[in-house]
Write a structure and sequence with these properties.
Blueprint (H helix, E strand, L loop, with lengths): L2 H11 L2 E3 L2 E3 L3 H29 L5 H10 L4
Length: 74
């Protein structure tokens, strides 16, 4: 997830941007943003596990967990 992705998700959630400043109009927008970010992260993790499963002879849950944890440093 990069800066452009985050800005796009914030706009989708209803955040407003003016002169480079992003404003959160209400708590519902913040909740929507949180849900959008969580869904994107879940999908990225699921895709990572599918990639491991497609490329491994005997994929394990531990391999998926390790790959997901490595995402923190990427």
């Amino acid at each position: 997830m990069n800066r452009d992705d985050i800005i796009k998700m914030a706009q989708e959630a209803g955040f407003m941007q003016h002169l480079g400043v992003i404003a959160i109009p209400n708590v519902l927008s913040l909740e929507r943003f949180s849900a959008i970010v969580a869904a994107a992260e879940r999908e990225a993790c699921a895709n990572l596990c599918e990639m491991i499963a497609d490329n491994a002879v005997m994929p394990t849950a531990n391999e998926c967990a390790k790959a997901i944890r490595r995402r923190r440093t990427a």
